[in-house]
Protein 1
Amino acid sequence: MIIRPIAPKDLDALFRIAEESGPGFTSLMPDRDALARKIDHSVDSFQRTLSAPGDEYYLFVLEDTATGAVMGTTGIQASVGRIHPLYHFRHSTLVQHSRNLGLHRQIDTLTRCQHYTGCTEICSLYLRPEYRRPLAGKLLSRVRFLFMAMHPERFSDTVIAEMRGVSDEGGQSPFWNCLKTHFADLEFASVTSLVGAGHTEFIEDLIPDHPIYTSMLSAEARGVVGKVHEQTRPALAMLEAEGFRFRGLVDVFDGGPTVECPLASIRSVRTSRGLRTVAIGQPEAAGTPTLVANTGLADFRATVTSDATTAGKTVLMSPTLSRQLGLDNGAPVRALAMGNTRPATHPEHIAMTPEKHYAH
């Protein structure tokens, strides 16, 4: 398995992923022209020389080195909300008090906001069902943190992940089904398609910016605020092990939580190490599975391997591995032992869409 930047040749595979992933995976809609533009945007982003984040979108694919098949995708949006506003509800408590009557009451509210404008977002993670194998899901998730650790000038100091909220087998969101009766008579599939295509103006037109009392919502809607889809729980556990935390911001459509972490505090950023491949040969014995990445941009490559051993600031790897990663003797790499941040369950064995992002 090799992680590399997406290329125009991957359009057919990306279209199949968009079809497979279904309506909950709004960052990749099954529209060939739109997907081709995303690929072009990603290719351009990897080629830019930067000192600060802008509208860059970095999309990676996981390739089966034996067959060349695309196994999955993973992505990073460098700075969200710059072109299309990124809306959330802030879930908070309003305190009302009448001193004269001696009455005191706390009321939960949802208030529309754009709190995360300018933050970096991890998104577009999808592992195709037939390729769910040990370490594949972890590789797709953590490789983004190594890439950001090596190129911090390209990203914000705060990283977020929007987690998929609760929906039923038919793709219906109890949260949105309640909101639409009050504010926007649109089906859930319609609003996610609109925002996935970059049409966000209706949110400001139809969703009020004043606090919404959650007591006015149905019990079903209140019960899913800040909750994730069952299939997303392992992915959330992985991010929580990395240091991500929920700070009360939820999605305006399905009520799912957004989690955040300072870039420098992400565990894989802190515990990964910069090394040099000063020796290429055959390691004496297989070691702990390690995520190893070169330090390139357009030529970025990464994999998980037991075919490398480290000592101090050096790493010994096989000739085959060095060729796959495009490395010569003395070339710099970054490495992360995959035994770190292990959650209780394995996301590579669950279904599909741990993270979402509506528009780039």
Protein 2
Amino acid sequence: MAERITIDSKDGSFGAYVARPGAGFGPGLVVIQEIFGINATMRAIADAFARAGYIAVVPDLFWRLEPGVELIDQGSDLEKAFGLYNAYDEDLGVTDLIAALGAVRQLEGCTGKVGTVGYCLGGKLAYLMATRSDADANVSYYGVGIERNLEEVGNISRPLLLHIAGEDELVAPAARGRILDAVAQNPLITTYLYPGLGHAFARVDGTTYQKEAAELANGRTLTFLSSHLG
């Protein structure tokens, strides 16, 4: 069952897509979008998590720039998506996601345990939620720019799972190496490296989608979330 809700933050309010499990209750999950907004891909991801038993909520990250963005990873949409990404304030984004986290915890049927799962831009933000929020568990898919905040690794006190593409064209090899070295020092961080794969390998119908690797990563995510959210 899907619905829309409004989440209040200190600077205003923003919308979110909600997918609920058939049972009507379960742990919460803040699903953090890519640079394309709450598009069909993100709604499908939330729906899949709902089928797995989670109350999955996708907040509108770009509401401060342009509410209701829905783009794809091709043509002029791709150019617009990168424009929004370059204008996006990650620190304000984390503030919004912390507000979303609190709102999800208050949703009817939520068990009180809430995690995050993020992709691309959302993968970076899931990492920052691990360092700056009290989310119960966090999952990052091919986060871009994590190397700029490695000094925060020591702040992580709850489990974090990182899916890292071995040939991510948006993360330089040297940056990828620094990330792997830094997170290896924190036993709460689990890292999976996918050799030979490019950015967004788990985006269904995307230009770089790799079905076998996506299914492997998604299975690892569900196992991880089940272990830490119940």
Protein 3
Amino acid sequence: MQKTFYQKELLIKAVQQRKGVNNNKKDVEKIQSWLNLFAMQNPNSGTATDIDGDFGPATEKAVLNFQKANGQPQTGNVDQNLFDKLVSPLKKAFESPISGNNLRELILNTAQNHLKNHPFELVINNQSNTGPWVRSYMDGHEGTEWFWCMGFVQAIIDQAASIQGKNFKTLMPLTYSCDTVGTTGLQKKILTRYQTARTNSALIKPGDIFLLQKTPNDWIHTGIVTAVHADTIETIEGNTNAGGSNNGNAVMNKIRNYKQSKLDFFSIESLV
């Protein structure tokens, strides 16, 4: 795999605890982030807490509640073993075995595996587009200006292609920009414009990438096509929400009407 930053998100340098001499602000922020992500999926767990890098009484109580919810000894301390449990969704997303008969199936199955592990961004220091999922998709970058939809798409294609020993960068450059991928598609003549796609759905295939067009050379959102129907496509996309925003906060499975939207399609066929 080319995009391996997620591995740094799986580790802490030392045991983190209240008044701990080895406490590290970034590691405490990681712990607090995962406590909040756990709370989103388990709202009665009592693990939501501020993300400020300070392992105070509130963080200690959140850790105790996480330990209780997971049947762990209630120490209030976080060692690597407990952190492994906190970060297990990320590890499962990037490291679970993925099967598929071809690259397209591998892409779909990889995307589905990420989706079921609930990737979600956080707001840290008043900055959206932050947290361990965003950093993993964006190679360490995070913050309000770092829209992460293309980072997600490339992480999925990279992970799937690497299973077959392929390098996704032969298809497109490593980038976080929809414009860069759209321009690459035009240069390689593998981008189907929305006007053509509307009249010939056979040109759209599962595993391809949609690009939401603002103007002919400006694209503002992206995702992976998972199914094609008469008027609609099904997708898995990052940095979106129920309304289909290009700056939402989650990975979601969505339905889009490609005959009423300006959706261009980037073909992955040359990588297949």
Protein 4
Amino acid sequence: MIVDDHPVVRDGLRGMFHGVADIEVVAEAGDGHEALARARAERPDVILMDLRMPGLDGVGAIERLRAEHPEIRVVVLTTYDTGADVSQALAAGVAGYLLKDAPREELQAAVRTAAAGGRVLAQRITSQLMAGLGPRSATAPSPRELEVLRLIARGAANKEVARALLISETTVKTHLKHVFAKLGVDNRAAAVVAAMERRLI
């Protein structure tokens, strides 16, 4: 499903997938509210989601989708590459973050990767985020710390992580503190990006 408030953009994206044997555009939406309604009706495997839209914006829609349809994979497709936008999207649990200047082949590959359960980030986004990271520790996160990080990457809050792993929120925070130190980062979004880049999650 394609979600963007500009009809011309939706037309262009639909054209990029026209005739592709293994990808079918089953629905379109012009804002977050419409996206939620169409997702309930069509149950797409992957949603290409713009961030800046009237009414319910992309991040708000992603958070609702993750709660209602965790099986649907969302890939952000936007013109905005600021740290705040990327961090909010990653914290909401997206499967990918691409920019609208991505070539046709990259978009198609991103949809396939997301549908298969993988994650994808635009190279420019990865480079920007990694450039701001500090020196990494040689120590890799423990299996338990990676469990916490995987749940964080799916958009879970500390309370949800604690409930899922049957531990306290204080323990979750301790695990995250250790993860940040080992990956050389200082926030959740950067930890997810660093772990993805190192293929830890």
